[in-house]
Design goal:
- The chain is an alpha+beta fold.
- It has one domain: Jelly Rolls (Sandwich), CATH 2.60.120.
- 33% of the residues lie in helices and 29% in strands.
- It has five helices and eleven strands, in the order E-E-E-E-E-E-E-H-H-H-H-H-E-E-E-E.
- The strands form three sheets. Strands 1, 3, 4, 5, 6, 9 and 10 form a seven-stranded antiparallel beta sheet that branches. A two-stranded antiparallel ribbon has the order 2-7. The chain has a two-stranded antiparallel sheet with strand order 8-11.
- The longest helix is centred in the middle third of the chain and has 27 residues.
């Protein structure tokens, strides 16, 4: 059965953003962004410029990977990641499951008692309305609170104790559970629909039918106007599809 064509999503149904990593100093002497994990989405980094590191907590333990122009790495859900900026770190981020990260797939590493309390978490993670300066200061406070929780996880892991990390995983799963039905619909309408279009096209080609090629289209994207958004790890540049044509 053929699947109706629509404007194509970005290849692989992924999302992209242009990330300028925060240069704010942290309590442990680094500079950079907010540690967090994703509950269902892989994430990739393509470093465009500058230097820094990504620090990760995963099934492999604690790791530090150097980043510079041309560096590429990606990681799976559950990987706690923290970007450290040592000089104008500029990254193209590539997110699986376009739409889910924006719908709350990310959980910041606030102290466990906050992550276990949905109301306290919502208050801590939400940036208020206000001026650029006010929102920037709120984003910095949010980052620092996540660094506090991250430091607890790291200290325990370095002592061979995965208990706090496992407790954080459980709290993160409980936190997002009420949104899974909404996420499933979003995923079905985008990622799964894109897969079904490819399945239909393969079936057509197997029968010698190339009619879908005649529906070829180009989607052009335009950057959203400045100022950049205050993201978890830095200032975000985002593109929107240009439907004028």
């Amino acid at each position: 059965m053929s699947v109706p064509l629509r404007d194509p999503l970005f290849p692989g149904s992924v999302g992209m953003s242009d990330l300028r990593v925060y240069e704010w100093e942290t309590a442990d002497g680094h500079h950079g962004g907010t540690p967090h994990l994703h509950t269902v989405s892989n994430e990739g980094y393509v470093v465009v410029g500058g230097t820094g590191e990504v620090h990760t907590l995963s099934s492999e333990g604690y790791a530090r990977d150097s980043l510079s122009a041309g560096s590429v790495l990606w990681f799976s859900p559950g990987t706690v990641h923290r970007l450290v900026n040592s000089g104008d770190l500029h990254i193209l981020t590539v997110m699986q499951n376009s739409g889910l990260p924006e719908a709350g797939d990310a959980v910041l590493t606030f102290p466990l008692e906050i992550v276990e309390d949905p109301e306290r978490y919502r208050t801590a993670v939400t940036l208020p309305e206000g001026s650029e300066a006010e929102r920037g200061e709120a984003a910095r406070r949010r980052r620092d609170l996540a660094i506090e929780g991250y430091s607890n996880l790291l200290a325990a892991l370095e002592n061979g104790d995965r208990g706090p990390l496992e407790a954080f995983y459980a709290a993160a799963a409980a936190l997002v559970q009420p949104r899974v039905e909404e996420w499933t619909k979003l995923w079905t309408d985008t990622v799964l629909a894109d897969v079904e279009i490819t399945r239909s096209q393969l079936a057509s080609l197997a029968e010698g039918d190339a009619s879908h090629l005649g529906d070829a289209t180009v989607v052009r994207a335009v950057p959203r106007s400045e100022p950049r958004a205050f993201g978890m790890c830095g200032r975000l540049g985002i593109w929107d599809a240009d439907r004028r044509g």
